[in-house]
Amino acid sequence: MEWLITNAIAALLTPPGIVLVILLIALLLTWRRPRLARGLVFVAFIALYALSTSFVADALLQALEPPVRDPAADKSGQAIVVLGGGIYYNAPEYGGDTLNSAAVMRVRYAAQLYRASRKPVLVAGGAPLGDAPEAVLMKTVLNREFQVPVQWVEETSRNTLENARVSYHLLNAAGIRRIYLVTHAWHMPRARLAFEHAGFTVIPASTGYITRFELTVLDFLPSATALRDSSRFFHEVIGIGWYHLRIAIGG
User: Fold this and answer.
1) Is there a smaller number of Cβ atoms within 10 Å at the N or the C end of the chain?
2) Which SS3 state, helix, strand or coil, does residue 220 take?
């Protein structure tokens, strides 16, 4: 229930939810404050257009990304921690649940890092909806498709903050505190904050950087993909602020 409530609130604070909230406020003000209502509609229109363009969405996500580096060049890491990226539910071609494209991107990079470092792997991802834990699916894909062994499975967490705490409990028992952390580049600031607060020293192992072949007119036209990416930016910024608050109050 907590996971559903948290994500419902996040949906209203990120595009397109926040734009719809502004439009609803404008509608309620139409008769009492018509000038303010028109101003809000204009703001909502401009915001929706800008956030729906790849030019703006890419710039926003790139602002979150850490510098590109080869984590394998740092030999001090003791283990590889891979964070879940989502589930492809009831996939008919696979006969059941499997990883979605974002999660596959992360485990693929973890497999490359494993081959370069030969460090043991922990997969992290619970089941906030009460379904199969994502970490179990991650282990299956790493074992079967990438021939990478998985030593630890963290399958009880509901978010990145819990990923960090439960992973620390598992790895600290093995004397491991310095890790390669695998996640998307735009998610790394929030993930690193959570894992360092848990007690780890983090070597960022980012994947899924925002890149572009060339800038064209299409980057200035609205698209659903760009709006999704803009939403991810606001989700991460809100999440970072929320984590700072929870850490400050000891939550």
Assistant:
1) N
2) helix
Q: Among 181, 182, 186, which residue's Cα sits nearest to residue 235?
A: 186
Give pLDDT, residue 8: 87
C-alpha closest to that of 160 among 198, 109, 118, 111? 198
Q: What is the mean pLDDT of each run of 10 residues along the chain (251 residues)?
A: 77 93 96 96 97 98 97 97 96 95 98 98 88 93 98 95 96 97 98 98 98 96 98 96 90 64
CA–CA separation, 135 and 142 (whole Å)? 10
End-to-end CA distance of the chain: 18
CB atoms within 10 A of CB 5: 9
**Peptide bond just before 16 cis, omega within 30 deg:** yes
- 3-state percent helix, strand, coil for the chain, nearest multiple of 5: 55, 15, 30
Structure tokens at 120: 């043991």
Which pTM value belongs to this model? 0.93
To the nearest 10 degrees (0 to 180), the angle between helices 54-62 and 224-248 is: 30
> Which pLDDT score is estimated for 251?
64
Provide the 10 A C-beta neighbour count for residue 238. 15
183: left (phi over 0), alpha (psi -120 to 50) or beta: beta
Place of tokens 């904050």: 193
Cα 23 to chain centroid, rounded: 28
CA 145 vs. chain centroid, Å, equals: 23
Closest to 150 measured CA to CA, from 125, 175, 187: 125
Q: Is 90 helix (H, G, I), strand (E, B) or coil?
A: strand
